[in-house]
Design brief:
about 700 residues; alpha+beta; 5-stranded antiparallel sheet; 4-stranded antiparallel sheet; elongated; structural molecule activity; flagellum; cell projection
Length: about 700
């Protein structure tokens, strides 16, 4: 019995020592990030029987040192943390962009546009006495507008480059964390009682959840980490891989397809295009060619026309490219984009066109899956949370969309001003003029050409007025006649006439007065000796499309500029028009009136992000307002998700965090237990000594 008491006291002493040690570890790690509080679990030890069948306990023993952690709370926290990180990344990116748009009233692109439009109105009211001052002012405001648009576009480019770099770095960080978690899985499997390794793994998973959305499945000592979309990131000791890749096309052919060519594209877009073949046939642009439809939301919906019908496009080669959402699409041989495809497409063939960098998950089989965030019900397998998702959403739904809208605005502004300006005349006549836009092939119809504004052309007439260079006398107005090019057709038709046809028609219509040539794809006009000319009206848009008698050059925010001829000589600003007799009346401001009216003209931008008709200024103000609204929404969503994540983390800390008061209480309790165990041993020894003395 004495031995049993000694054994009981020794065990109690050791139990107290373990409790003191664990409590001391908790106190030492009170400020250690990721540390989960440890507690000692005790279990009643076995009992022994003594004389007469009496059962006596042998005390307690340490069953385990537990890591206090609520896995359900942690799962909810990981989800909230991913969402918070996504909104944080998006809010930060959009806030920086908002500052670019949200300039003061004295500076900024919106103010520059309004001021330019006001200066057109001032040109309308100018007289011969102050015409030069007004023209110089108009030129100055035009150059300010061009600079503002260019600077904003360049700043957006810089911001986009930064986001692309951030995305690539985040992918590297995610891959590194996935490898770390896999290695920790292996170590924990070998050392399942190592609580330190479990802490390290939980911390790494939290860090990973800040980059991508994750869900965690545990099979005991090891965990499997997946994205919310179902892609496995870590499985046991194996880490999968993510990659940030350049624009590309992923092909998925139907079982019955024999197509061995490829889909090619040109251009950049904030949208991802899912191309689905809807009818069998060759990809040659013929009447029997295959057709396809396009979705911008992963197949959830399909692009429709104004009547709501799904748009069907004809599959063609390089010469029959189709433009969708700013991206040119065509089919060719594998490895040769200019060679026609030789095999047929089949209904059900799909092509995922990524005209931008994207995020991909790599499977063990060597294949890869596009998990770039994309809005749509059919895109549940895409990344939806974490910093990476926030960066991509800020890029696609924010910066790229804003830049496309800005380019569409600049494009329409250039066209509207150029079209109206080309209808008028300045203060001096031309002896020669050169188009600012060029074609790749001067022999194809202009509607199919590479002219930036080929789609704005329409059938119509164009007239020239001629003057005696020495006397200034009007020699008359003559319409350009295409009947020598296409008998029976006098007017220009963009579906029929090429740039070479235009040059030939000018040479045939005005022999001895005007010579037309094509140099480097641009139309060149040269008046005969002693002759000057003016453009006397153009209902087809041909002049604006080829860049003759225009105010601006370029076709987007980055390449927009004041026409060098106007910049060098403000007399080229066309405030007047040529009358029926070929005269340009002194003080005439009829074209200035039409130019000033552009401020209130409602136009529709060539952009999937804008579906309304309104003034150019209203479009720009709406874009600025959208940037502000998007930034505010991202900030509000961040605040809400961050509050939820903080609450969940606080609740987890109630379980896993170290509380100094509680630990000190535990320390006192274990100390008292230790002292009690010591007293028990001492008392037992004294009892033993007493028994021995009685015997002696």
């Amino acid at each position: 019995m004495i031995n049993s008491l000694l054994s009981l006291g020794e065990r109690a002493l050791m139990n107290a020592q373990v409790g003191i040690s664990v409590t001391g570890e908790n106190i030492a790690n009170i400020d250690t990030a990721g540390y989960a509080r440890r507690t000692v679990g005790y279990a009643t030890s076995y009992s022994v029987s003594i004389g007469g069948g009496l059962s006596v306990g042998t005390g307690a023993e340490v069953e385990e040192v537990r890591r206090n952690y609520n896995t359900l709370l942690e799962s909810n926290y990981l989800s909230a943390n991913s969402e918070t990180s996504a909104w944080a990344a998006m809010a930060e990116a959009l806030y920086n962009v908002e500052k670019l748009f949200g300039q003061t009233n004295d500076y900024g692109v919106a103010t520059a546009l309004d001021t330019f439009m006001d200066s057109l109105a001032a040109l309308e009211g100018s007289s011969d006495d102050n015409s030069e001052a007004v023209r110089q002012e108009l030129l100055s405001y035009a150059e300010t507008l061009v600079d503002s648009l260019s600077m904003l576009d360049s700043s957006l480019d810089d911001a986009l480059n930064t986001l692309e770099k951030d995305a690539a770095e985040s992918v590297d960080q995610a891959n590194s964390l996935m490898k770390e978690i896999a290695a920790l899985n292996a170590s924990i499997t070998s050392h399942p009682d190592s609580l330190e390794l479990q802490d390290q793994r939980a911390t790494a998973i939290r860090e990973l959840s800040s980059l991508v959305d994750v869900q965690v499945l545990s099979d005991g000592s090891s965990v499997t980490v997946l994205t919310a979309g179902g892609q496995t990131l870590v499985e046991g000791d194996y880490a999968y891989e993510l990659s940030w890749e350049n624009p590309q096309v992923e092909t998925d052919l139907s079982a019955s397809s024999s197509f061995d060519g490829a889909l090619y594209f040109n251009g950049a877009s904030s949208d991802e295009l899912l191309v689905e073949v809807t009818s069998n046939g060759p990809a040659d642009g013929s009447a029997s060619a295959a057709t396809f439809r396009v979705s911008l939301d992963g197949g959830d919906t399909w692009l429709t026309d104004e009547d709501g019908a799904v748009m069907e496009f004809t599959a063609g080669g390089y010469e029959d490219k189709v433009e969708v959402a700013g991206v040119e699409i065509w089919f060719g041989q594998s490895g040769d984009s200019s060679a026609p495809a030789t095999t047929n497409l089949a209904a059900g063939d799909t092509f995922d066109v990524m005209p931008k960098s994207g995020l991909y998950w790599h499977a063990t089989t060597g294949g890869k899956v596009n998990i770039t965030p994309l809005q749509g019900e059919g895109t549940n397998n895409r990344l939806s949370g974490g910093e990476l998702a926030g960066i991509v959403m800020a890029r696609d739904e924010g910066l790229l969309a804003y830049q496309e809208e800005l380019d569409a605005l600049a494009r329409e502004l250039i066209w509207e001003v150029n079209y109206q300006h080309s209808q008028g005349a300045g203060l001096e006549h031309y002896t020669g003029a050169s188009g600012s836009y060029e074609v790749d092939d001067e022999t194809i119809p202009l509607a199919e050409s590479s002219l930036p504004y080929a789609d704005h052309l329409q059938a119509g007439g164009l007239a020239f007025a001629f003057y005696d260079k020495d006397t200034g006398e009007a020699l008359g107005v003559e319409a350009l006649d295409f009947s020598s090019i296409t008998p029976g057709t006098a007017n220009f038709d963009p579906e029929v006439h090429s740039l070479q046809d235009v040059a030939d028609a000018i040479n045939a219509s005005y022999p001895g007065q005007l010579q037309a040539d094509i140099q480097d794809g641009q139309l060149q006009l040269t008046a005969a000796s002693g002759v000057e000319f003016e453009f006397a009206g153009d209902s087809s848009g041909l002049l604006a499309a080829v860049g003759l008698n225009t105010f601006f050059t370029g076709s987007n925010a980055s390449d927009m500029a004041v026409d060098p001829r106007v910049a060098a000589d403000t007399d080229r600003i066309n405030a007047a028009t040529v009358d029926g007799a070929g005269e340009v009346a002194s003080g005439d401001s009829s074209n200035a009136v039409a130019l000033a009216a552009l401020a209130g003209k409602e136009v529709r931008l060539d952009s999937v992000h804008s579906g309304t008709s309104q003034s150019l200024s209203s479009h720009l103000h709406a874009l600025t307002g959208k940037v502000g609204a998007d930034t505010d929404a991202a900030a509000r969503n961040y605040t809400q998700s961050n509050a939820l994540a903080a609450e969940l983390d606080a609740r987890q800390q109630e379980v896993a965090g170290v509380n100094m008061d509680e630990e000190l209480t535990n320390l006192m309790r274990y100390q008292q237990a230790y002292q009690a165990a010591s007293t028990l041993i001492q008392t037992t020894n004294e009892l033993f000594d007493t028994l021995m003395s009685l015997k002696s």
